[in-house]
């Protein structure tokens, strides 16, 4: 995975975590809310462990669960330097 893509996923995961905390959800509660049966998988996505990351379906469900615009997960993406 190239650095641009790593940074892309890092920004999205950071935004998901920030919004989750702002809305007062635990990882477990939010994972179940969006249909992920494993909090470990959710945690791995949020922390970019083992190459796991959120996909578009996850982001759509997360935006609905958190009652925010999906675009909020992409804040800061423009700061990625293009290689």
Features:
single chain, 83 residues, mainly alpha, 434 Repressor (Amino-terminal Domain), 4 helices, 0% strand, globular
Protein model, in words:
The protein has 83 residues and is an all-alpha fold. The chain contains four helices and no strands. It has one domain (3-72): 434 Repressor (Amino-terminal Domain) (Orthogonal Bundle). Helices cover 58% and strands 0% of the residues. The protein starts with a helix and ends in a 17-residue tail after the last helix.
Give a brief description:
The protein has four helices and no strands.
CATH fold-level label: 434 Repressor (Amino-terminal Domain)
Strand content: under 5%
In total, the number of strands is 0
Output the CATH homologous superfamily.
lambda repressor-like DNA-binding domains
Spatial separation of the terminal alpha carbons: 13 Å
Total number of distinct structural domains: 1
CATH architecture: Orthogonal Bundle
Map the helices and strands.
Elements: H1 3-23, H2 27-33, H3 39-47, H4 56-66
